[in-house]
Design goal:
single chain; about 850 residues; Sodium/glucose cotransporter; Neuraminidase; 2 domains; four-stranded antiparallel beta sheet; 20 helices; elongated; transmembrane; Na/Glc_symporter_sf; cell membrane; Kelch-typ_b-propeller; Sodium:Solute_Symporter_SSF
C-alpha cells in the first residue's frame, strides 16, 4: 500500500511544473432564418415547444431621423422546421415594449404599450395556437422587465403611463392573482434587465441596469430579490450600462448579459437640442453608436462580473429566448430608429482536456484497488472473516476506516461547495461528531461488543421483537442503497466536469470497480482500502488549500472577512435556517443516529481485538473528523476568494453547485496533481460505497436470509448480495444524474433525518427506557415517523432538525404507549443500561 501512495506522489511531483489548460467555454452563434419584418421590443418566447415572436414595432415608411411615425404590430409568428409562419391568432392590440415569459402552460404576454404613451394592463397567454385573457395587472407597465420564479411571475420597473417607476408586481399563476411586492431600492428605471437565477440557497430575481428618464441616468447597479427573505439585496456594479440590453441564465449560477446602448453616446443623444442636431445625431454609421456587443458573465455566488465573449451583433431592444438547448437572439435595433430582422441561435461550446498523465494516475489507482480486493479474498475463509476480519484489524486502522467512510465524497465535494456558496454555519456539525463520540463509547459500545453481534439489528430483536429487527434492517438497506447512489454520482460528476466523458459511463465504471473489490475481499479489504484512500484524500485536500490561498489575487483573509465567509454563530431563535441551535442540537442528534444505528459504522466496532481498542478508534475518529472538517470548510472559503479574485476562470456553464471543486481541480491545478486529486475524489467515494456494500450484505445475510433460506451458504450469499445491491445503487445513481438538485449536502441530510431517525430512536429507547416494550416501540416507530413526514411537508423547519424531531416523536409516543399497553415482561438482562452486567 505504501508503494501505491509513493508512486502517486512521485508522479505528481515529477509533472507539477506544467499546468492544466483551463476549459474554454464560450457561446457559439449561428444565423438562422430572418423574421418577415425588422422589429424591436417584440414579445418573444416559447409556446407548445415552438419559438414565438409577437408584436413589436418599427418605422416602416419614413425613417425615424426624418420624423417618421413608429408602427406597432399584432402579428404572431412561429418558427417551424426552420421557417417563420404567421399564426391565425393575433394580439388584442398592436403593441410592444412589454414582457414575454415562457412557462409550462404557454407564452405569457404582459403589459406593453400600443402608442408609446399609455401603458397596457394586458395579461395574456398563448397556448395551443390560441390567445387567452388572464386577470389584468392592477396598473399598466411598459418598457419593463420580468421573469418567472417557481410558479410566480415578477414584473419590475418600467413606465406607467409615461412615468418611470420602481414598483414591482407578482402574479401567482396557480391562484391567478396579482399582488405588489416591496419596490426595489434606488432610482426608478425603464428597460432594466430582469432574470431569475440560482443564488446560494434559493432562486432569486435579478434586476440590472436600466435608465431613468427623469435624471437621464444610465444605471450600472443591480439588485437581487429574495423570495424567502422578501427583501432586495445590492449587487456588484455591472461593467457597462445595460439599458435596452438582455440577459440569459447559463449553468447553475451564471447570468450572461449583453446588448443595449452605449452610456456615453446615449447620454449625448439625450442632450441634443433642435431638429437639425437630432437629425445629425441619428444619421451616423451604426458603429459610431457603440451598442454593446461584449458578452459579460455575472456569477451570483462570487458577486462579480467579467467579459467572456462577443455577441454575433450589437443590438438594443432585442429579444432573448432560452429554448431548444440554447438561446435565440431576435431582431432589435442596429442604431437609433433602425430595426433588424436577423435571428441567431447560440449554444455553449466547451473544450475539455484531461490528459494522458492524469488518466495514468487514475488508472494506476483503480487497478491497485482491485488488486487489494483480490489479495484479501484469499484471507476471507469464512463468513466471520468476511464480516469481522477475524477481529485482527488494529484500532488505528479501524479509526481511519470509520473516518474515511463517514467522510466520503459528500464531504470532499459537497462541503467545500456549500461553504463556497454560503459560510461556516454548518461547521458546528463537525464539533458534534467529536462530542457524540463520548456518549457512544460509554453508553452504546459495550452493548454491541459484549453481545458479540454481527448485525446491529440483532440487538433490536433481543430487546424488542423480530418485527422491529426486520423493519430496521430493511430501512437501513434502503437508506444505504440511496447513499451509495449519491456517492457514486458525486465522483462521476467530477470526472464528467473534468473530461466531458458521459456521466452514465463514469457511474457504471465506478460501480463495477467498487463492487468487485468489496464483494470479493470482505470487510478487511474495505478497511485497509479506507486507510489508503483516507491518506490520499487528506494529502490532496491539504495541498489544495495551500494552492488556493497562495494563488488568490489579494489577501485571502481580507476577502473572506469582507464577504462574511467565516460567519458561524447565529443565536437567533429561527428554526428554518442554520442557526446555532439548529446545527448544534440537530447535528448532535444526527451523529448519535449515525454512530449508534448505522451498520456500516457498528460493524467496524466488531473488527478490533477489544472493546477498549474499539473505543479508542471512535474517539480518534472524532478528532480526525474535527480536523478534516476545518480543512474542507477552509477549502470552500478559499475557493470563494480564489474565484472572486479571478472571475474569468469560472466555467459559465457549470451544471451543478457541487461541481465547483472538481472544476477547480481540473482547470487550475498542475497536470498530474489534478489526477491525484480526482483519484482522491474516487477514494472518498469508493471508501463509502465499499463500506455500504459490505454492511448491506451483512444486514441482508444476517437479518433477512434466515427468513428466506436457513440452509444457504452465508459467505456465498454475502458476496452475491454485494453484487446485487451494488448494482441497485448504480441504477439509482443513474437516475440521480437526471435530477436537478441545488445542494447535495442538503439533500443527503434531509434523507438522513427522514429515513434513519427511527433507527436511532429504537436503539436509544432500547438502552435507556426499560419500560418500553416491543409493541409500544413499534407503534411509536410508525406514528412518529408519520408525524415527521407531515412536518417535512407542511413546515419550513430546517432539514437539520429532522433527525432530532424524528427521535423525539418516536420516543415520546412509545413512552406514552408503554403506560397504555400491558408491560413487556421479557428479560432485559444485559440489554438496557439499568440491567447491564458490569454496573
Amino acid at each position: 500500500m505504501k508503494g501505491i501512495i509513493l508512486l502517486l506522489l512521485i508522479t505528481s511531483l515529477f509533472i507539477s511544473c506544467s499546468s492544466n489548460k483551463a476549459d474554454e467555454t464560450t457561446v457559439a452563434w449561428q444565423a438562422i432564418e430572418k423574421l418577415p419584418n425588422a422589429l424591436s421590443a417584440a414579445y418573444a418566447g416559447v409556446a407548445d415547444g415552438e419559438l414565438i415572436v409577437a408584436g413589436g414595432c418599427n418605422f416602416p415608411g419614413v425613417p425615424a431621423h426624418e420624423g417618421g411615425t413608429k408602427s406597432f404590430y399584432d402579428n404572431i409568428y412561429s418558427l417551424k422546421n426552420g421557417a417563420w409562419q404567421r399564426l391565425p391568432a393575433v394580439l388584442p392590440a398592436a403593441s410592444a415594449y412589454g414582457v414575454a415569459i415562457s412557462s409550462g402552460e404557454g407564452l405569457h404576454i404582459i403589459g406593453g404599450t400600443a402608442d408609446g404613451k399609455q401603458s397596457l394592463t394586458q395579461n395574456l397567454i398563448l397556448t395551443k395556437g390560441e390567445m387567452k385573457t388572464l386577470p389584468a395587472m392592477p396598473f399598466g407597465l411598459d418598457n419593463t422587465g420580468g421573469a418567472m420564479l417557481g410558479n410566480d411571475i415578477y414584473i419590475v420597473g418600467g413606465l406607467s403611463d409615461g412615468t418611470p417607476t420602481n414598483r414591482a408586481l407578482r402574479y401567482d399563476t396557480r391562484a391567478q392573482q396579482w399582488s405588489e411586492i416591496e419596490p426595489y431600492p434606488g432610482e426608478p428605471r425603464v428597460q432594466p434587465v430582469v432574470i431569475a437565477q440560482n443564488a446560494a440557497e434559493e432562486k432569486r430575481l435579478y434586476v440590472m441596469g436600466g435608465f431613468n428618464p427623469a435624471t437621464k441616468n444610465v444605471m450600472q447597479d443591480g439588485w437581487a430579490y429574495s423570495p424567502r427573505a422578501k427583501q432586495w439585496l445590492p449587487l456588484h456594479e455591472a461593467p457597462v450600462g445595460l439599458n435596452g440590453g438582455f440577459a440569459f441564465g447559463a449553468g447553475v449560477h451564471t447570468i450572461l448579459a449583453s446588448g443595449g446602448v452605449n452610456k456615453e453616446r446615449f447620454t449625448e443623444g439625450l442632450n441634443v437640442l433642435g431638429d437639425s442636431a437630432r437629425r445629425e445625431y441619428m444619421t451616423h454609421e451604426p458603429a459610431w453608436y457603440r451598442f454593446n456587443d461584449t458578452l459579460y458573465a455575472y456569477n451570483t455566488i462570487i458577486n462579480r462580473w467579467c467579459a467572456t465573449g462577443v455577441m454575433p451583433a450589437a443590438r438594443a431592444g432585442a429579444s432573448l429566448v432560452a429554448a431548444h438547448g440554447g438561446w435565440y437572439l431576435i431582431a432589435g435595433e442596429t442604431m437609433p430608429g433602425v430595426r433588424s430582422a436577423e435571428v441567431w441561435f447560440g449554444v455553449v461550446d466547451s473544450e475539455q482536456s484531461f490528459g494522458w498523465i492524469n488518466w495514468t494516475v487514475i488508472i494506476v489507482y483503480l487497478i491497485a484497488m482491485i488488486g487489494m480486493g483480490v489479495f484479501f479474498m484469499f484471507r476471507a475463509k469464512n463468513s466471520d472473516d468476511f464480516f469481522k476480519a477475524g477481529g485482527r484489524i488494529p484500532w488505528w486502522a479501524v479509526s481511519v476506516s470509520i473516518f474515511a467512510t463517514m467522510l466520503s465524497a459528500i464531504t470532499f465535494m459537497a462541503i467545500p461547495a456549500k461553504t463556497y456558496a454560503t459560510d461556516w454555519r454548518y461547521f458546528l456539525m463537525a464539533v458534534t461528531i467529536f462530542i457524540a463520540a463520548f456518549p457512544v463509547v460509554k453508553y452504546y459500545l459495550p452493548f454491541f461488543r459484549r453481545l458479540n453481534i454481527t448485525s446491529a439489528y440483532e440487538y433490536l430483536e433481543l430487546r424488542f421483537n423480530k418485527t422491529l429487527r426486520l423493519i430496521s434492517s430493511i430501512i437501513f438497506i434502503i437508506f444505504m442503497t440511496a447513499r451509495m447512489a449519491l456517492v457514486l454520482y458525486l465522483p462521476s460528476l467530477a470526472l464528467t466536469a473534468a473530461t466531458g466523458i458521459d456521466i452514465y459511463t463514469c457511474i457504471l465504471l465506478m460501480s463495477l470497480i467498487t463492487i468487485v473489490y468489496s464483494s470479493i475481499g470482505g470487510i478487511e479489504a474495505v478497511v485497509w482500502g479506507d486507510v489508503v484512500q483516507g491518506i490520499i484524500l487528506m494529502g490532496g485536500a491539504l495541498f489544495t488549500l495551500f494552492f488556493l490561498i497562495t494563488h488568490t489575487d489579494g489577501n485571502f483573509l481580507q476577502i473572506a472577512i469582507e464577504n462574511e465567509k467565516f460567519h458561524i454563530l447565529n443565536f437567533t431563535f429561527d428554526f428554518t435556517s442554520a442557526t446555532f441551535w439548529v446545527v448544534i442540537f440537530g447535528g448532535f442528534a444526527t451523529q448519535i443516529i449515525s454512530y449508534t444505528s448505522d451498520q456500516t459504522v457498528i460493524q467496524r466496532y466488531m473488527t478490533t481485538k477489544s472493546e477498549k481498542q474499539a473505543g479508542k478508534s471512535i474517539i480518534t475518529n472524532g478528532i480526525l473528523s474535527l480536523i478534516s472538517s476545518i480543512l474542507f470548510y477552509a477549502i470552500g472559503t478559499a475557493l470563494f476568494t480564489y474565484f472572486q479574485s479571478r472571475p474569468e476562470t469560472l466555467d459559465i456553464a457549470m451544471p451543478t453547485a457541487d461541481s465547483i471543486f472538481p472544476f477547480f481541480i481540473m482547470t487550475q491545478l498542475p497536470v498530474g496533481l489534478a489526477g491525484v486529486l480526482v483519484a482522491a475524489i474516487f477514494a472518498a467515494s469508493m471508501s463509502t460505497v465499499s463500506s455500504n456494500i459490505n454492511s448491506i450484505a451483512t444486514a441482508f445475510t444476517v437479518d433477512l436470509l434466515p427468513y428466506i433460506s436457513k440452509s444457504a451458504n452465508k459467505l456465498k450469499t454475502a458476496r452475491l448480495a454485494s453484487v446485487i445491491f451494488g448494482a441497485l445503487g448504480c441504477g439509482f445513481a443513474l437516475m440521480m444524474a437526471t435530477w436537478n438538485v441545488l445542494s447535495l449536502f442538503d439533500w443527503f441530510n434531509t434523507m438522513l433525518g427522514l429515513l434513519t431517525s427511527g433507527l436511532g430512536a429504537l436503539f436509544f429507547m432500547g438502552i435507556f427506557f426499560d419500560r418500553i416494550g416491543g409493541r409500544a416501540a413499534l407503534i411509536g416507530f410508525v406514528t412518529g415517523g408519520a408525524a415527521l413526514l407531515l412536518v417535512t411537508i407542511y413546515t419550513q423547519l430546517n432539514f437539520m432538525l429532522y433527525g432530532l424531531l424524528g427521535m423525539s416523536f418516536i420516543t415520546i409516543i412509545s413512552l406514552i404507549m408503554s403506560y397504555i399497553l400491558p408491560r413487556d415482561d421479557r428479560s432485559k438482562q444485559n440489554l438496557t443500561w439499568r440491567e447491564r452486567g458490569d454496573k
